[in-house]
Amino acid sequence: MRTQQILCPTDFSETASHAISYAIEMANFYNVGICLLHVVDKPFGDKYTRVLAVTPDELIERMEREAADKMQQFIDSFDIYFPFESKICHGHPVEKILATEKNINAGMIVMASHGRTGLEHFLNANTAEEVANKAKCPVLIVK
């Protein structure tokens, strides 16, 4: 951990922003970098109509462009300067987070939890929990 980059998956939510503050603090302490990762989930249709009006490749390209814009706005929203490496990919979030962990040889993953409980937790896949169970490095889940 002390010499390896911190992987910080983000969905651009307020909770993800909170998790990144923890990642920045740890990165400063250990003098390591941070890799911000956003995974564009598999497209299933236009965000307004949910009808696929363009080819899947065009939709993925548009979603990745929008994600890149959001990523830059997200990085710009921090009060302090910190050099982030950023990655955007598409696919299943857990698979892509774990693949990125392996590819960059992450020393730690810091990510947000959506804090679901009860029936909502049972019915919705919990990305943070699955990453924590399958990751090879330590995982800090921030609420």
From TrEMBL:
Keyword Cytoplasm included in the entry's annotation: yes
Keywords: Cytoplasm
InterPro entries with a match to the protein in the record: Rossmann-like_a/b/a_fold (IPR014729), Universal_stress_UspA (IPR006015), UspA (IPR006016)
Domain UspA per the UniProt entry, residue ranges: 4-143
Subcellular location: Cytoplasm
Cellular component GO terms, alphabetical: cytoplasm
Pfam families named among the record's database cross-references: Usp (PF00582)
Keyword Cytoplasm: yes
Chief site of localization: cytoplasm
Organism domain of life: Bacteria
Family from the record: Belongs to the universal stress protein A family.
Name of this protein: Universal stress protein
